[in-house]
């Protein structure tokens, strides 16, 4: 069969409240034209994030009832620890309430003022946690990543030559850890090849620098390797994932992505001394080391989710269905980033609205109009998010102006996605009528969450 279907049936449904374009114009105006300020009820298709928004399976809901809520040494903890070790292969597992808590603990222990932490591209919380610890976060994406026209298979790779140059420049003693984000979320959800993971690992080992993987979307990355990298077609996603982690010294994970959980995360390492320091911090802010800020039932849901996310039928459907949206938009002439990433489709707002200058926030204007058109909520990744230096107050265009449409796992059907494609295409038809925006109120830090806008 050529048609790849959702490999699940729907047992529970959640109604979607329908609204009209006229109602949505009023709603978004009332929200200061900021999509983060909309009540989620007023959104028809919510593509704000793929994080914590997955649908759990009947097996996960069943496992919730098995949750052992004992404070220490709960049965659910052992089940969780076993599931994590089975895939990640590290000796020490430290549970946290989500990914950024794992990052905060790791960087609090490793990063000192003056340190430099390279990555293919840091996610914003990773960057913020490094900076909060006094370090400098450096992005070293592969050159193909900057070229929207490039159809290279692994646009998420790190530029290993730039990594070597950075180590030579600052000295290995000032680099406490090298990170690699799989897939590369801030770089368009693009995958990282096994060859690149190995190359980064080799460089890290040569210089005695620990190498960590930001593993949020590890299963999607493993699937891309299976599809695109010679020598992996006959391996299972689990084997590929294990190999990916075998080259690393540790990993941070948000279970809100590739573990189908609504909350949770963890930190793993083989370094016993480091793990002891991390557990001390864990107890201070997250909780006892056998639950780390999670309920026993959450640990159960993650353990089951980690197994399910590596199922081939699921991964095939997941990656094909994301590409389906990107390819349909491309066929309609809409500027999108290609090839499609794993968890999201990225609209290129600068090419979509070429008459809107970057300092009039084309990504924001496009995301507002997409909401008005179809009640679809995406997120601006561009000059609103990255354009202003919070310390100097200086504003300049970001590298790009994108709108990310992140696809929650197992939540929407193909007809929902056809609806999204139609909404984007309709906005594209009337793109010339869409003007720029200005900011009328903004906070000093992370302004995209709460700034208010008006049309220019
Ligand atoms: N690393 C990456 C690559 C991420 O994408 C995220 C979260 C985190 C770390 C932090 O994990 O949210 O559990 O604390 N990304 C979400 C997103 C929020 O929408 O892309 P967290």
Outline the secondary-structure elements.
Layout: H1 21-30, E1 45-46, H2 58-64, H3 75-88, E2 92-96, H4 99-110, E3 116-119, H5 124-132, E4 136-139, H6 160-170, E5 178-181, H7 194-206, E6 211-214, H8 218-228, H9 237-246, E7 250-254, E8 265-269, H10 272-285, H11 296-308, H12 312-331, E9 344-348, H13 349-352, H14 362-374, E10 376-377, E11 379-381, H15 383-386, E12 402-406, H16 414-429, E13 437-441, E14 452-455
Parallel strand pairs: 1-10, 3-4, 5-6, 6-7
Antiparallel strand pairs: 2-8, 7-8, 9-12, 11-12, 13-14
Helix pairs in contact: 1-14, 2-11, 3-11, 4-5, 8-9, 8-12, 12-16, 14-16
The structure holds ligand F0G.
Ligand F0G binds next to helix 4 and helix 5.
Keywords:
456 residues; alpha/beta; Aspartate Aminotransferase, domain 1; Aspartate Aminotransferase, domain 2; 2 domains; 5-stranded mixed beta sheet; 3-stranded antiparallel beta sheet; 40% helix; binds ligand F0G
Q: How does this structure look, described?
A:
It is built from 16 helices and 14 strands. The chain has 2 domains: 21-50 and 312-455, Aspartate Aminotransferase, domain 1 (Alpha-Beta Complex); 58-308, Type I PLP-dependent aspartate aminotransferase-like (Major domain) (Aspartate Aminotransferase, domain 2, 3-Layer(aba) Sandwich), CATH 3.40.640. Helix 1 (21-30) packs across helix 14 and helix 8 crosses helix 12 (312-331). The strands form 5 sheets. It has a 5-stranded mixed beta sheet with strand order 2-8-7-6-5, sandwiched between helices. It has a 3-stranded antiparallel beta sheet with strand order 9-12-11. Strand 5, helix 7 (194-206) and strand 6 form a beta-alpha-beta unit. It has helices at residues 21-30, 58-64, 75-88, 99-110, 124-132, 160-170, 194-206, 218-228, 237-246, 272-285, 296-308, 312-331, 349-352, 362-374, 383-386, 414-429; strands at residues 45-46, 92-96, 116-119, 136-139, 178-181, 211-214, 250-254, 265-269, 344-348, 376-377, 379-381, 402-406, 437-441, 452-455. The longest helix is centred in the C-terminal third of the chain and has 20 residues, at 312-331. With 456 residues, the chain is α/β, with parallel strands linked by helices. It is globular and about 60 Å long. The protein binds ligand F0G. The site of ligand F0G has 15 residues, from helix 4 and helix 5. It is an enzyme of class 4 (lyase). It catalyses: L-tryptophan + H2O = indole + pyruvate + NH4(+).
